[in-house]
């Protein structure tokens, strides 16, 4: 009987802890918090111009996010070889050039490769480019039957015909709605996509993917301040940029990194840590992305670190249930992209990602952009649904759920056409 009572008490304790950190969708329950000033150093020094930002404040913020959130890449790993797997000058009903490029990496007797699917408009000029990851393989973003199906591990999704963690023909074209390839090409942009599972499988297991290539001796897990999955995916985007610098058809000075959800977090970190990207689009990135952590609205640091412990470095777990101890917040991650253009987007029904927190992330990053004479978010109230704010710092909230839609891409193309010079 005593054991039974103790068991009941234990489960009651677990229930209460879980309830305490359930997703909050009530603005009246958002705790009071003081947002750190992006223009004040950790020791209290005021930053008054962009030179001081670049020499003092930006380095310390970048270092903090590296050591305590996304993790450091523990070494250099260059492209060992570039293999053109397939190319055509008659793709998308004759409107585009298609390339499928395999980047190969080797170290410590191990090999990893990932494939970039590239569509480019037919032109003699070097073209600007959107680059981003997809969730279920390059073949899912188009009905183009020539796109190679990845053999990498994938999360099961029976509705897409994905079982036993294997991608199949059944999933070809199931995510065409998220990419609007024709609109991108018609606007004069190229598109490059990568299946994120080829760089690092999205599971709490660091025995595969890119991590083992940089382990030391008998290491089995990244150290507490070393890269998690988001750090690895960001690394992969930078290696894609290494390739773009070699491709004479691509204008490497006008490459915009795009991401949705967890890959929206990835896009922000890639843009913050690699200044070669000309702009960043973060679509509904939520907690750990554009949304302010200290609001504790929707997904929280406690939930994200427990459900997806592999996304961030282990040091980030020090702040779960302890957001008030964070000396930074996500507006400062966005600010690290300055003065390059950045677009933050939300969806009205995606409360888990905290649309207001995402808007505030963009708003409170604006003072850093103003140091450069760039226009950010000037209004303190969220814009009306489906009425974008398009400045160097851009934002919109649209109708609908957690997704990428044609409306989103129409705004991104319009914005990039104006601000990616």
UniProtKB/TrEMBL annotation:
<dbReference type="GO" id="GO:0052689">
    <property type="term" value="F:carboxylic ester hydrolase activity"/>
</dbReference>
<dbReference type="InterPro" id="IPR054579">
    <property type="entry name" value="GCE-like_dom"/>
</dbReference>
<keyword id="KW-0732">Signal</keyword>
<keyword id="KW-0719">Serine esterase</keyword>
<keyword id="KW-0378">Hydrolase</keyword>
<dbReference type="InterPro" id="IPR029058">
    <property type="entry name" value="AB_hydrolase_fold"/>
</dbReference>
<feature type="domain" description="4-O-methyl-glucuronoyl methylesterase-like">
    <location>
        <begin position="226"/>
        <end position="373"/>
    </location>
</feature>
<dbReference type="Pfam" id="PF22244">
    <property type="entry name" value="GCE_fung"/>
</dbReference>
<feature type="signal peptide">
    <location>
        <begin position="1"/>
        <end position="19"/>
    </location>
</feature>
<protein>
    <submittedName>
        <fullName>Acetyl xylan esterase</fullName>
    </submittedName>
</protein>
